[in-house]
Amino acid sequence: MSLSLAFLTSFAAAPLSLLITRLSRRWSGGVLAAVPAGLMLWFASRAPAVLRGELPAIDMPWVPELGLAFALRLDGLSLLMALLITGMGALVFLYAGRYLGQRRHLSRFYAWLFLFMGGMLGIVLADDALLLFICWEVTTFSSFILIGFEHKEEEAREAAQRALLITALGGQALLVGLVLLGDVAGTLSLSRMLEPERVEQVRGGSRYLPILLLVLAGTFTKSAQVPFHTWLPGAMTAPTPVSAYLHAATMVKAGVYLLARLSPLLGGTAAWEWLLTGVGAVTMVSGALLALGHTDFKRLLAYATVSVLGALVLLLGQGTAHAVQAMVVFLTVHALYKGALFLVAGVVDHEAGTRELPEVGGLLRRLPITGAAAGAAALSMMGVPPLFGFVGKELVYEACLEGPGGWPLALTAALGFSLMVAAALRAGVRPFVGGSFRAGKPEAQVHEAPSSMWAGPALLATAGLALGLAPKALQPLLGAAAAAIGGAEAGHLELKLWHGLTPALGLSAASLAAGGALFAARAPVLRGLQALHLERWGPERLYQASLEGLKRLAHAQTRVLQSGSLRRYLAVTLSTLGGLLALTLALRLRAPPPGPPGEILLHEAAVLVLMLGAAVLAVTTRSVLTSLMALGAVGLAEALLYAFFGAPDLAMTQVVVQTLTVILFALIFSRFPVEPHEERPRWRDAPLALAVGGLLSWALLHVAAVPPHTRIAQFYATHSVPEAHGLNIVNVILVDFRAFDTLGEVTVLATSGVGVYLLFRTGARQRRRT
Amino acid sequence: MNPVVLCTVARMMAPVLLLFSLVLTVRGHDSPGGGFVGGLLATAAFTLLLVAQPEELVRRRPRVDPTRLAITGLLVALGSGLPALFLGRPFLTGLWAQVPLPGGGALKLGTPQLFDAGVYLLVLGTAMAFILGLLHGEEEEAREREG
Amino acid sequence: MERYLALSIGALFTAGFYCLLRRSTVRLALGIVLLGHATNLLLFTVNGLQRARPPLVPEGAEAPTPPFADPLPQAFILTAIVITFGLLALLLVLVHRTEQAVGTDDTQALRAELPDSER
């Protein structure tokens, strides 16, 4: 089984889900979970090779003209992410089978989930920037579909649209950034971009800042950084397994992943450090603050996720070896506990029938296993020893203290963590141990969820506990991941529960105490926060206003451009043509074309006068018959001109066509009410027509001043007898040299004939029916 | 003009025009003319007959459906490009042969002439579809008004 | 001569555009015919005019004796004439059928036939 097969498996599994769901809805989740589980085992089996430094990779040309390659590479970071994606994937499939068992479109749900998983694996495995972008968009789109899965609900549609607008716009920026990056670096291969001389080129180049800003626009929107975070809480309208999988454990980390991937290339500059640290810190604190203020279980968790994503970005901004290590560890910690808590939220919703935190209480008696898992996950989120969360948090504090941010940054992080502690207590502990049950459903009817639903949270929470007690187990893998970002120095990772009496421990204890105090005094704090309506400020306003503006613009544009009036369309078209002509003439050619007016023979002048006179008559007369005759005269004058200037073929054709045209018009008018609607002459139209016609004349005068081009004529003249055996060069061009062209044109003609035929036939049939 | 005179003139002129259209098409490769103008001229010839003798039109529908004629022409033009493909040359490459004639001369024949013949049929068919369509439409309408 | 013709072509275009902007679809068809004439003459003039022999090779010769007219625009115009004819026929039949179905040839009135949402 090769790397590309592992990547493509989930795409192949998408149609499979349709079949499995038809066979058994009840067992479909468990059966389909075997796919990600198998993938996880395969990735785990690659671990020894990757840890030894033998990185599996493939590189096949895909669209060489675009520089697009199908290139995959599995290094430490990719492996860590791939294990998270497939491991969480297995639990989520298992869970979803029961959670959504009775819903319609279950098979579709699985299919989109598989598609997402394939895209997500593609992001972390891709070694080609464009391939990565394609997979990036696959996840954006499947996320859009999954958020809007309950598409009959207004709220879900609105949330899906918002997520798509924000992340897809960011995706466009990312695409431009990646293309620019590939241009400057001279390669689209992510691993080859890291060659020292290419890094020099990128960082020293004048396009560094635009590239950085574009890439940040893409990654910040995907990873829900302030001010682009507003889509993530809305995404909670998705079914809970989706929230746990896409919007906590994996997809929102894609932005962080890409930043980590590119940090050796783009990182280490002042702009990088300030932007990432600043945005990360603001996101971390405001996310935690918003989380604390919410009563909806999933929304609280979503804002907490925003906060953690901010912390991860902040650490990447610091960029030291320790910061990179802390980032990798904290990312893993978060995936474990947040995945567990989301699944718990789903269980509570499923069993108690509400997601409102104040309505539930004392659930531990009713949901013992779920409650225990929730407690363990919440403790990990708080960073209580001996859980894995504690290990991660210690590393974050250490990295902040050691890095360029120093104490101010560490205190900011402590503020964020204190708020998170309080949020974790509200979400993971209080519903189960304290308070009272006030939901609509009688408490006695609340039962423990089926095993396939509690298995996920229990497993994840146990992992959080086990890894806290024995952090060495993951040390090689996390070290390899850190090494993939920060080089060998970051690879020397040492995970331990007890670091000694350090400032970090002090901060840890302080944040726990502050968080606990905040939780104890939560009633006034909550009231205060809710009164502020924080989430409606700033970015939310901006988003709503710009969406409204866009709609209004679209309406206005449609009103102006799609008026339904043919004349207005034509007027707009003509004005555009005239405007562009005038612009070109004004920019390119200021002087009128010089030279003598040229000679004109008497008979030519006579024909021109006849033609113009006939044209004027055709336009101005009120009688259709007169204008028809005038039209014929114009055509005949044209034929004469062709005859004067060496084009007998054209002259003949023109005469015959003119005759047939007049016959056609005559046939039509023989039963048409003549001039039914001719209104008064409209003086607005005449100047427009005159202006555009005059500009065309003007342009043609310039063209006439250019000496004729004779090379092509010469080619046809000298080749038509020897190669095409014809004396009439015009005909030779039509049927031999450019026969393919002619074939196309006669096909157009035949099509119009068929069109006329059909119009009459349907007309006859309709009349017969009535 | 007297309808009788018109009718007589039309009857005399139409075959001449038709013959001329064929000459124009066949000679088109070497002198002014060709499939386009030939097809149009043939249409003019038929139209002349139709306009001069409307009762003919009522009595006898044309034996050949003009749309079918147009499609045939298109197929002939397409087919003229195929021989070159069989010889491994690009589609529509002209191929020529000299056929000796009794009396010393030689007739040159080539696929471009076939192509031109296809154009002739196609233009004739399409233009006749326009004319006949309008004429028949009128006729049907007239019948409706009566019945 | 090209200069005089350039002005005449502009005048033909003006006449054609003016017809296009009328309300009557019959005028619209007239305008299209005029535009066809103007465009064909434009193609004819663009590369210079020659009061010269047609581009025919004399019997037995290998190439025409200069001066001869440029054959390429002629080939273009020949097909353009015929295609304009086809377009016109289709347009006339459409006008005719529309008139039969709606009872008007006024584009403003046709607009009123649209459902409100499409106006």
Layout: helices, strands, pairs:
The complex is a heterotrimer of chains A (770), B (147) and C (119).
Chain A: H1 3-23, H2 25-52, E1 57-63, E2 68-73, H3 76-99, H4 106-125, H5 129-147, H6 154-185, H7 196-204, H8 208-222, H9 231-234, H10 240-249, H11 253-266, H12 270-292, H13 297-318, H14 321-352, H15 368-382, H16 388-402, H17 406-433, H18 451-469, H19 475-491, H20 503-520, H21 522-532, H22 539-561, H23 566-588, H24 602-620, H25 624-644, H26 648-669, H27 685-704, H28 711-724, H29 729-737, H30 739-769
Antiparallel strand pairs in A: 1-2
Chain B: H1 3-27, H2 35-52, H3 54-59, H4 66-79, H5 82-86, E1 96-100, E2 106-110, H6 111-146
Antiparallel strand pairs in B: 1-2
Helix pairs in contact in B: 1-2, 2-6, 4-6
Chain C: H1 2-20, H2 25-46, H3 71-102, H4 107-112
Helix pairs in contact in C: 1-2, 2-3
Give an overview in words.
Chain A contains 30 helices and two strands. Chain A has helices at residues 3-23, 25-52, 76-99, 106-125, 129-147, 154-185, 196-204, 208-222, 231-234, 240-249, 253-266, 270-292, 297-318, 321-352, 368-382, 388-402, 406-433, 451-469, 475-491, 503-520, 522-532, 539-561, 566-588, 602-620, 624-644, 648-669, 685-704, 711-724, 729-737, 739-769, and strands at residues 57-63, 68-73. In chain A, α6 (154-185) packs antiparallel against α8. Chain A starts with a helix and ends with a helix. Chain B is built from six helices and two strands, in the order αααααββα. A two-stranded antiparallel sheet of chain B has the order 1-2. The longest helix of chain B has 36 residues, at 111-146. The two termini of chain B are 31 Å apart. The model of chain B has no long low-confidence stretch (mean pLDDT 82). Chain C has a single domain (2-55, 64-114), classed as Helix Hairpins, CATH 1.10.287. Chain C is 66% helix and 0% strand. Chain C starts with a helix and ends in a 7-residue tail after the last helix. The model of chain C has no long low-confidence stretch (mean pLDDT 83). Classes of the chains: A mainly alpha (770), B mainly alpha (147), C mainly alpha (119). The B-C interface holds B 30-32, 34, 36-37, 40, 123, 126-127, 130, 133-134, 137 and C 54, 56, 78-79, 81-82, 85-86, 89, 92-93, 96.
Tell me the span between the first and last alpha carbons of chain A: 68 Å
What are the segments of chain A in which pLDDT stays under 50 over at least 5 consecutive residues? none
The count of DSSP E runs of length 2 or more, i.e. the number of strands of chain A, is 2
Highest-level CATH class of chain C: Mainly Alpha
Q: Approximately how much helix is present in the residues of chain A? A: over 70%
Strands of chain C, count: 0
Oligomer: heterotrimer
Structural class of chain A: mainly alpha
Average pLDDT confidence of chain A is 88
**Approximate strand percentage of chain C:** under 5%
Q: Poorly predicted ranges of chain C (pLDDT <50, ≥5 residues)?
A: none
Number of domains of chain C: 1
CATH topology of chain C: Helix Hairpins
Summed up, the helix count of chain C is: 4
SS strand fraction of chain A: under 5%
Largest sheet of chain A: 2 strands, antiparallel
Indicate the structural class of chain C.
mainly alpha
The secondary-structure element order of chain C is HHHH
